[in-house]
Every structure is written in structure tokens, then in C-alpha cells.
Amino acid sequence: MTIMKINDFEIYYEIHGEKNETPLVLIMGLGGDIIGWTFQLPEFSKKYRVIAFDNRDVGRTSKTDISYTMDTMAEDTYNLLTKLGVKKAHILGLSMGGMIAQTFAINYPKMVRSLILCDTIPRGSKGLSALTIWKEIIKNMPRELFIKETLVWTFTSESLENKAYVEMLVGEFLKYPYIQPPEAFIRQCNAIDKFDVLERLKEIKAPTLVVVGDKDILTPVWHAKEIASRIPKAELKIIPGCGHALNFEKAKEFNEVILEFLEKH
């Protein structure tokens, strides 16, 4: 296990691939940790030194008992990279990770070589949302049922019609040893609810790619279009045939889009 201790806080991280001048940093979303990059790490590390880590309150990184914001998690990312001696990096964030990445690019612009924002939003919902429901049911719903509930929001109906595939996914999540406590999940949800950088997106100067699945119902395409329209010269890529979990459902296409963008920057 590779643990970076920052003050009284411990961040679990992994480094894959050959050391190069500008590493690629992967930031995962709500409730997810390094396992979420299963189909990306082998491919990305062929060309890049890839740094992946578990956000606070998930995986093997420290849990906390206080509330926090995306600024807090962007600072976690900054502290980890600084400790690792990274001066500049390609920053890729998915879902909540994309919110952290947006915040990081605004707060620490000199550290961003390029920015990739996947299936994400520029601000939290002000009304009823999946998160509103999830925060209530995770406290009382059996874990297997909660996993299935989130799959309905993150995978396409085509994928979910494959019973063997669904059973495999549920089984993998159930046997995973680093289960996120319900209260930690809720704290991450609360951080999303407080998130809002919509009016600050114009401050991002790094080359930016915005990626979304065309069937994403959790963070729909219109969010990606809004982000891309507000970041100067941002590129928008819509991947067909996948939902929010595009890095699972269309891993090959997702990886190709990311690597093609990185090659240019």
C-alpha cells in the first residue's frame, strides 16, 4: 500500500507507468475509488505516468467526521501532487471527480497542463435529484439493493438487460473490501450539493476536453455543453451508446478519446 501522510490525513495513491515529464492524474467520482479506473490504468500507463488516488472518505484514504467542499478535495489533490514533486499535470476527473478537477483548475491553474472533464456538472442541484434520494436510502437500504439502485442511474438499459453482466457488477461491488460507510457517502453528496463554479469557468485557461455519454441521465449532455461553452476554446466529445459509467460501458472508445486529446497537449 502506498500512503501519503499530509498532516493527520492519509491519502492512498498508486503510480502506474514510466516516469515522464507531465503525469496524468485521475480523480474518481462519488463513492468510487481507484477500482473505478480498472479499464483505464493499463492503457493510459502505456504512454503516461499515471497517478490515481482515493478521495477523502472513500477507499483506503482517511475518513473524516466533518463536512467539506470541492475546494477541500482540490486541496487534497494539490497536497498529494506537491508531496510527489509534481509541478504540472494533465488532470482528468469523472463525475464528482470532474467537479474536483474544475475546482483544481481554477484554484491551481499553474499546475494544469490540460484538463479533461468527464460526465460532470458545473454546480450542484438546487432541487430534487438522485443524490437527494440516495442520501436517504443508503442509511436504510441493504447494500446489494443500493448498488442496484445506483446501477440504474449510471448504466444504460441495454447494459442492464444483460443479467450476467449485472450479476458480475453487483458481485464485484459486494465483495470489495473497502466499502464506503453511509455517513461518508452522505458527506460527499453534501459537498456536491454545495458545489458551484458556473460563473468561474471562464477563468480556466488550460486546454480542456469535456466528455459525456449520450445516454447519461445522471449528468445529462446539456451540462457538458454548458461547461464547454463557458471554458475558453474547450472541446466537447459526446460518446454514443453509453450512460454515466462511460469508462466501463465504452471503455475502448473512452480511452481512445482521452489519449487522442492528450497527444495534442
Descriptive report:
Helix 4 (130-137) runs antiparallel to helix 8. The protein contains eleven helices and eight strands. An eight-stranded mixed sheet has the order 1-2-4-3-5-6-7-8, sandwiched between helices. The model has no long low-confidence stretch (mean pLDDT 96). It has helices spanning 41-44, 70-83, 96-107, 130-137, 143-154, 157-160, 163-175, 182-194, 221-230, 246-249, 251-263; strands spanning 3-6, 9-16, 24-27, 50-53, 89-94, 112-118, 208-213, 235-239. The protein has 265 residues and is of the alpha/beta class. Strand 3 (24-27), helix 1 and strand 4 (50-53) form a beta-alpha-beta unit. 40% of the residues lie in helices and 17% in strands. The protein has one domain: Alpha/Beta hydrolase fold, catalytic domain (Rossmann fold), CATH 3.40.50.
Q: Any chance you could write out the topology, listing elements then pairs?
A:
Blueprint: E1 3-6, E2 9-16, E3 24-27, H1 41-44, E4 50-53, H2 70-83, E5 89-94, H3 96-107, E6 112-118, H4 130-137, H5 143-154, H6 157-160, H7 163-175, H8 182-194, E7 208-213, H9 221-230, E8 235-239, H10 246-249, H11 251-263
Parallel strand pairs: 3-4, 3-5, 5-6, 6-7, 7-8
Antiparallel strand pairs: 1-2, 2-4
Descriptive key words:
globular, eight-stranded mixed sheet, 265 residues, alpha/beta, Rossmann fold, 40% helix
- The third-level CATH topology is Rossmann fold
Q: Work out the helicity level.
A: 40-55%
Shape: globular
* Largest sheet geometry: 8 strands, mixed
Termini gap: 32 Å
- Which stretches are poorly predicted, pLDDT < 50 over at least 5 residues? none
Please state roughly what percent of the residues sit in beta strands, choosing from under 5%, 5-15%, 15-25%, 25-35%, 35-45% or over 45%.
15-25%
Given this structure, which CATH class is correct? Alpha Beta
| CATH-defined architecture | 3-Layer(aba) Sandwich
Could you say which structural class the secondary elements and strand pairing correspond to? alpha/beta
With strands numbered from the N-terminus, the spatial order across the biggest sheet is 1-2-4-3-5-6-7-8
Radius of gyration: 17 Å
Number of strands: 8
Average pLDDT, rounded to a whole number, is 96
Give the domain tally.
1
Give the topology string: H per helix, E per strand: EEEHEHEHEHHHHHEHEHH
Number of helices: 11
CATH H-level superfamily title:
Alpha/Beta hydrolase fold, catalytic domain
